[in-house]
């Protein structure tokens, strides 16, 4: 593959690292005190309560709402782990697949908010592309340690 400046594999590594930085920004901008007290989940409960798909409302009520602090921690620490894993290239296929799933969950939950839709669709597309291009082959701990050959 011919490209300008970097090789194709290096461009995919740039994409992976950029996605990792995006996840780190998602983690960084949260008001941690409010978020870990369950504030983010309370906000999401309001969104889920008005959702057009009954399965989303029911799933949120049964799985997320009973455990707001646990879910708040799960979401925040998952975003941090995804960001660090993608930037460092550590367990990259796992991070890309998990990020893809998390973005799809966000996408389904936020079906009414077009601004969120754009961000989640873009992040999901980058995750899928970086996963299929095996972006961990360049500039990653996975490559340095011979993981996922």
UniProtKB/TrEMBL annotation:
Its GO CC terms? membrane
- Its transmembrane ranges are 6-24, 80-109, 121-139
- Where does the UniProt annotation locate this protein? Membrane
Q: Which superkingdom is the protein from? A: Bacteria
> Per UniProt, which keywords does this protein have?
Membrane, Transmembrane, Transmembrane helix
InterPro entries, from UniProt?
Answer: DoxX
Membrane topology summary = Multi-pass membrane protein
Which coarse location class applies to the principal site listed for this UniProt protein? membrane
- What is the protein name for this chain? DoxX family membrane protein
Name the source organism.
Streptomyces piniterrae
